[in-house]
Amino acid sequence: MSTASVAIDDVDLTYQTARGGVLALQGTTLNVGQGEFAAVVGPSGCGKSSLMKLVTGLRPPDKGFIAISGEPVRGPVKIAGMAFQNANLLPWRTVVDNVMLPLEIVEPHRKQFRKQKQQYRDQANALLATVGLQGFGDRFPWELSGGMQQRVSICRALIHKPTLLMLDEPFGALDAFTREELWGVLRDLWHEFNFTVILVTHDLREATFLADKIHVMSARPGRIVLSKEIDLPRPRQLDVCYTSPFTDIVHELRNKIAEARLG
To answer: pTM here?
Structure first.
């Protein structure tokens, strides 16, 4: 699986409301290298999720420039996989059919889906096995726990072999134990497939455990006020979360966000 670089250069974004415009992002600049795991953190309402919309081409910026692997983003991008806080699985489709959904939509898979459906089904089941869901392909979403549903969501985001994975609070609705378990699942998938990741999260421990670099955003209008390299050795095990270097990073990020919240 090849990887993508992401460049966000001096971007402004305004939302129009009944009471006038709301400036969500102003002068936002952020760069993510090929194969890098980046995390974006900041106070609530700072525009973290707006960045997701801009990078994936779901919304154009009012000002500035966005490019993926050197190509300007001018509309919805096909090379990105996305997963969100809610798994949003279709309840009438089996697990494996939920995973295969992007293959029915994204070219070139869409054109050859019927002819290669069994091959795609085998690929989906193999991907499910990598996240600990071997044998669950014929189940329905309502038969799975929340953590299992989120594993399916991640598989769905990766089935078409995207070069970029965009994650918006993917583990935010889960209990602490399940959340940490899925950190390990995502870590292993990233090591195996070497895609580029942008993770939006409120969880500073999650960001520190997973990311190569963490970008801290200011309060609205959002801009990057700190880009922190995480030099903890890889592959990381959960035990690292209880070490002084790890907690020092978390405290530094928390303090910077507190400053950002105050403006």
So the answer is: 0.93
